[in-house]
Amino acid sequence: MAYIGEQIDANLSAAAGDDPELFRALGLAFAESARRQLDLLERSRCDGNWHVAALRLKSIAATFHAPDLLALADEAADGAPGDPAVLRRIARVLADYPV
Fold first, then answer.
1. Is residue 2 predicted with pLDDT exceeding 50?
2. Pairwise CA distance, residues 80 & 66, whole Å
3. CA–CA distance, 50 with 74 (Å, rounded to integer)
4. Whether this model's pTM surpasses 0.85
5. Backbone dihedral angles phi then psi of residue 4, each to the nearest 5 degrees
């Protein structure tokens, strides 16, 4: 899986301009939001909770222009709740993001 930081960093730079504090705050917002949805996916015990968390993750990925994460969120939304393979791949992508 490709490192998503470069893609996100380019979009954050466009949004934050020359403001390093804003750049960092936006990066933290992405990381915290995405990791929160991963946690919810991991703890989902029903189809509805799984689907909502997957769609929220998809929205976060789309907002921050992270196509690899977007594809995984789609896969999760279309797949079986609790799928350990997709959870591992999402976690791997998010672990590669340095924030």
1. no
2. 23
3. 12
4. no
5. -85, -10
For tokens 């020359």, name the residue.
Answer: 18
Model confidence pLDDT, tens digit, residues 30-72: 889 999 999 999 999 899 999 999 999 999 998 888 889 999 9
- Token pair belonging to 34: 């995405």
The alpha helices in the chain, defined as continuous H runs, are 5-16, 20-43, 47-63, 67-78, 84-96
Name which of 79, 15, 46 is nearest 58 in CA terms: 79
Give DSSP secondary structure letters for 11-27. Answer: HHHHHHTT-HHHHHHHH
Query: CB within 8 A of 89, min separation 6: which ones?
Result: 1, 72
Three-class secondary structure of residue 73 per DSSP: helix
User: Rounded to whole angstroms, how far apart are CA atoms 23 and 85?
Assistant: 32
